[in-house]
């Protein structure tokens, strides 16, 4: 009996974790690269879901040299030695997909994530607004219903009274 053992890289590959988990406009956001198998030789970050040269934001080579392409809106970015991308003073223009492509001695890997920045005004979510509207409508209904009930009750009392004699 012959047993064939084949070693393959993890099917799960690298991951990207967004920090903070619910980033807001004007915050520093880090797209943290996790589960890299081996030492990074090259790390490239792209704007969008592809890896075209026109989408390249920043690149880090084995020797530590960084190439910042300064795409529109990406002048305040940095790349850490662990492959993580930092965006300082994040703005609405930074919403969207980001793709990281890494190369290790074990081969290439890439992952894409979606960055959605929250408005710092702390505005209410659409669900919260809908809840408030429904509560106000219910309260108005209760007030109108209560007023109708009281008026009917009082009208019934006045009809059953005997007229006062003077």
UniProtKB/TrEMBL annotation:
- Transmembrane in keyword set: yes
Task: Please tell me whether the keyword Cytoplasm is annotated for this protein.
Answer: no
Q: Which domain of life is it from?
A: Eukaryota
Q: Which residues form the Immunoglobulin V-set domain?
A: 39-113
Keywords on record: Glycoprotein, Immunoglobulin domain, Membrane, Signal, Transmembrane, Transmembrane helix
Recorded family membership: Belongs to the immunoglobulin superfamily. CEA family.
Residue ranges annotated as transmembrane are: 128-151
- UniProt-recorded name of the protein: Immunoglobulin V-set domain-containing protein
This chain's source organism reads Engystomops pustulosus
PANTHER family named among the record's database cross-references: CARCINOEMBRYONIC ANTIGEN-RELATED CELL ADHESION MOLECULE 1, CARCINOEMBRYONIC ANTIGEN-RELATED CELL ADHESION MOLECULE 19
